[in-house]
Amino acid sequence: MYLTPQRILLAGATGLTGEHLLDRLLNEPTVERVLAPSRKQLAAHPRLENPVGPLQTLLAQLSGEIDTAFCCLGSTLKEAGSQEAFRAIDHDLVVAFARRARELGARHLLVISSLGADPDSSIFYCRVKGEMEQALRAQGWPQLTIVRPSQLLGPRMEVRPVERLTAPLSYLLPGKYRGISACILARALWRLALEEAEGTRVVESDELRRLGR
């Protein structure tokens, strides 16, 4: 069954995937309102509300009814600077955002996790992502969509030397391990948002590529 989300809450609108998703949302005539808090000012649009500041402080100030929430937050250990700082963003802030979205009436949360997310993983990054997924499941969402993309491909503002080296090779990997462009991921997220179903759905990278074509 398909529905049309009209009032959207988006976290991470200035990120690689978030900016593509924001552009798609604002070009959908059925979307009535996009509430997108961000650290820096976004380009003005008649259907965009853009509170500016740290998301941690903005969450309590967000208001208005929401149908669907997208969480495109995510960092790397290098960007965060420490394991504690990474967890604060990729676990704590994601969970707090989801909680606030639910308080505003959202019934469907779509969140970007990661390939290999597992709360029992020996790899810190994958373990935090898995614990984040666990925490979101515990919130009791009517509809929760967890997407697990492989390496995200596309131009970034910040330089990531390792990703530049591995990106060409990621296209050669099989199935869910093959890299996925942020533009395709954004299209897949929107398509998933149009689907109405109960419970939790986990979508791996190979299916995301198919949905985003």
From TrEMBL:
What species is this protein from?
A: Stutzerimonas xanthomarina
Instruction: Write down the superkingdom of origin.
Output: Bacteria
Q: Name one Pfam family in it.
A: NAD_binding_10
Which InterPro entries does the UniProt entry name for this protein?
NAD(P)-bd_dom, NAD(P)-bd_dom_sf
Show where the NAD(P)-binding domain sits: 12-153
* Descriptive protein name: Uncharacterized conserved protein YbjT, contains NAD(P)-binding and DUF2867 domains
